[in-house]
Design brief:
Blueprint: H1 2-7, H2 24-27, H3 33-43, E1 69-70, E2 73-78, E3 84-90, E4 108-114, E5 121-123, E6 126-127, E7 132-136, E8 143-151, E9 159-167, E10 182-185, E11 188-193, E12 201-210, E13 213-214, E14 227-232, E15 238-241, E16 257-263, E17 270-278, E18 281-289, H4 301-304, E19 324-325
The chain binds copper (II) ion.
């Protein structure tokens, strides 16, 4: 596992950190001999042996979502009717995996975003008896999309595999919005506090209000008051963070603030997607952040923050109808 090596320095019980996605409680610690041997067991028969962390391959140090095949498991799209998205996870023998552990209420979390970081969606496919996962297609419109399957095969470690999926049609690339510490979604205002630094753990606090009033009755969503996904601009490395604390632990309040412990692996530009549930619906607030960089209010955004300056005619608005949740 790559994450434990990076995360062992702050393996707090409730620390939820970038990189180790689901099941962080199991993996946020030094790699144990037991974990290594279990790993051997699951990968022995596979063609994924070259990715074995013990072999010192680059995969051992990668964030999630960059590989379509890792540790013997492969993300394989399946032909599906119009309007549906279907895929399988195959094992080292090419057989579809049918047994998964539940993590955060679900056996499978499917996250999609266009390569330009727009159109983020987080959905939960249904597993058929043949090992095919199916969901109403979250790919909202033409473009090159990255699809992330975030899951734990029974007997294996948490894993996030990623694949590009092209939806034909006229592509309009959208410039990444400038860094900001406040955004609005569905009538909510969400502010971001914290200063992530590459290679260090930082607190990120997101505070939610509506019509000027703090929201203090957030609803649990997948076992938490908030879920945070970050995608790195350029390669869409996938980083999944969970809050510091959970509903019912006696110390975590249902808003207005949700705090995360986060570590970004490198400098660069990241897009953060906060899912929170209120009023019976899931909402997504998005932020562009530049770890270690100046704050948005300090510097003209386009000059310093954006590796790819917005096209002169581009709209600054991001996302739009593509956003949503199941
Ligand atoms: Cu999910």
């Amino acid at each position: 596992m790559s994450a434990p090596l990076k995360l062992s320095g702050f393996a707090l019980g409730l620390a939820a950190v970038f990189g180790a996605a689901y099941g962080v409680g199991r993996v946020a610690g030094p790699v144990t001999p037991a974990a290594e041997s279990r790993h051997d067991d699951t990968a022995t028969a596979g063609h994924g042996d070259t990715d074995h962390p013990g072999g010192g391959s680059a995969a051992a140090h990668l964030p999630g979502g960059l590989l379509v095949s890792d540790r013997g498991y492969t993300l394989t799209p399946v032909a599906a009717p119009a309007g549906e998205f279907a895929f399988q996870i195959t094992d080292g023998d090419g057989r579809p995996v049918t047994a998964y552990d539940v993590a955060h209420d679900k056996q499978m979390h499917l996250i999609v975003a266009r390569r330009d970081l727009s159109g983020f969606r987080h959905v939960h496919p249904e597993l058929g008896p043949d090992g095919t996962w199916r969901v109403a297609s979250p790919l909202a419109g033409p473009g090159v999309w990255r699809a992330f399957a975030d899951f734990t095969p029974t007997g294996g470690d948490p894993l996030t595999l990623g694949i590009d999926v092209t939806v034909p049609g006229a592509l309009t690339s959208r410039p990444l919005p400038a860094p900001a510490t406040s955004t609005t979604v569905d009538g909510y205002t969400v502010t971001l506090a914290g200063d992530p630094q590459p290679g260090r753990t930082a607190e990120l606090t997101l505070t939610i209000s509506r019509d000027g009033a703090p929201v203090t009755d957030l609803e649990p969503y997948l076992g938490a008051y908030g879920h945070l996904v970050a995608l790195r601009q350029g390669d869409l490395a996938y980083l999944h963070v969970h809050p510091d604390g959970e509903p019912g632990d006696g110390r975590t309040r249902p808003g207005p603030a949700v705090t995360f412990l986060a570590e970004v692996p490198t400098a660069g530009t990241y897009r953060l997607y906060l899912d929170f549930k209120h009023g019976g619906a899931v909402h997504t607030a998005e932020f562009t952040v530049v770890p270690g960089g100046a704050h948005a209010e300090d510097v003209p955004p386009a000059a310093t923050h954006a590796p790819n300056p917005p096209a002169p005619t581009g709209s600054a608005e991001h996302g739009g109808p593509g956003h949503g949740h199941d």
